[in-house]
Amino acid sequence: MNQLSEQVLHHLSVAAPHFVSGSELSQLLNVSATAIWKHITQLRHEGYAIEAVTGRGYRLLAMSERAVAAEVQPLLTTASFGRFFHYYDEVTSTNLLARELAQSGTPEGTVVVADTQRAGRGRMGRSWVSPSGVNLYFSLVLRPQVPLFRVPQVTLLVAAAVHQAIKKLAPDVALGIKWPNDLLVQGKKVAGILCEMFSEPEQVHFVIVGIGINLNQKEFAPELEDRATSLLCETALFFSRPQLLAEVLNAFEPLYQQWLGENDLSFILPYLEEHASLTAKEVVIEQGNRTISGTVVGLAQGGELRLITSDGESLLVASGEAHLRQQ
C-alpha cells in the first residue's frame, strides 16, 4: 500500500460509518478526483470494503484484516514499538528482513510483518510453516543496552507479552508458556518465538525477535496435527490479525522498558511461574549431543529452568529444547 492510499484509507476510517465526498478527499490530499478513484480501486483490490454512492462519496464498510500499518497503528498505545512499520505480502523470512533493516540503522521498535513466509524459521533450525491469510508472522528490532548474558531473558519476556495479548482476546483458552519459547494449548503449539542476537564480545548491537502465532488456520498437515493448533481451532472464533499484533506490541513495550531497568526477570517471574506448562513435569532437555533429565520445579530469576534430577541434584538449565519425558 503506497502513502497516498494509506492517506485515503485514514480519512475514510476516521469518517466511518459516514460518507466522505470525492471532492473533499481531493482537496484534503491535493490530487484529482480521478486519482482518488484509482486509490479507492486499489484499496478494494487489497480487501477493503468501500461503498461508492453518486452524490455522497465513499464510505468504508470493512477493513481488510491484514496486519498493515494503516490497521495496526491506530490501535497502538506504544511510544516506539510498531511506529516504524514494514508490511510485505510474501517474504523469505521476517527475521532476515528485520536483520537487514537493523544493520542499516533502523530504530528500535521497527516491525516487519508478512502475510506469508517462504522460509519461516523456528529454533534449532526448524522451519515454521507460514500459510497466507490466516496467521500472524512478524519480527521486532530491539537495541537493548544490557550485558550480553541478559539477552536470552528477552525470549521469556516476549512469551509473557504474547500470553497477555492472547488471553486478552481469548480469555477462555487454556494457554501455557513452555520454556523457553513456545505457547501451548493442551500440549499443542499455538505460538513460537525466535530471538537472534547480533553482538561483539562486549556489546549488543541489536536483537531480532521473531514471533509466529496461529490465529485462523483451520487445519494442519498430518505431521503437525498432534503438535500444532490455532486460536480458531480452540475457540471456533475468528481473530483479527491487526488487533492481536497491536495487543502484543502494547503488552511488550512496557515489560521491555521495565526489564531494561532491572537486573533480571524477578518482576515478571510470578506471571511466568503461574502460566508455566512444564512445572512439576518430568522432562528431557536436549543440548546438542547432550541431554539432561529431571523434574521441573520452576524458573530462576535469570530465566533458567530449575530441575531436580533423579539423584536429587538441583540444576539450572540456561538453554536447550525441553520435551516431556516418555513414561
TrEMBL record:
Location of the DNA-binding region in this protein: 22-41
GO cellular component, one term: cytoplasm
GO terms of biological process kind: regulation of DNA-templated transcription
BPL/LPL catalytic domain span: 70-260
GO MF annotation: an example: biotin--[biotin carboxyl-carrier protein] ligase activity
Keywords: ATP-binding, Biotin, DNA-binding, Ligase, Nucleotide-binding, Repressor, Transcription, Transcription regulation
Keyword Repressor carried by entry: yes
CDD domains documented for this protein: BPL
Entry binding sites for biotin: S93, T94, N95, Q117, R121, G122, R123, K189
Reactions the enzyme catalyzes: biotin + L-lysyl-[protein] + ATP = N(6)-biotinyl-L-lysyl-[protein] + AMP + diphosphate + H(+)
PROSITE patterns in UniProt: BPL_LPL_CATALYTIC
InterPro entries, sorted: aa-tRNA-synth_II/BPL/LPL, Bifunct_BirA, Biotin_CoA_COase_ligase, BPL_C, BPL_LPL_catalytic, HTH_11, WH-like_DNA-bd_sf, WH_DNA-bd_sf
The keyword Transcription regulation is assigned to this record: yes
Highest rank taxon of the organism: Bacteria
Enzyme Commission number(s) of this protein: 6.3.4.15
Group of enzyme by EC: ligase
Entry similarity comment: Belongs to the biotin--protein ligase family.
Function (record text): Acts both as a biotin--[acetyl-CoA-carboxylase] ligase and a repressor.
HAMAP family attached to this UniProt entry: Bifunct_BirA
Annotated protein name in UniProt: Bifunctional ligase/repressor BirA
Organism: Chlorobium chlorochromatii (strain CaD3)
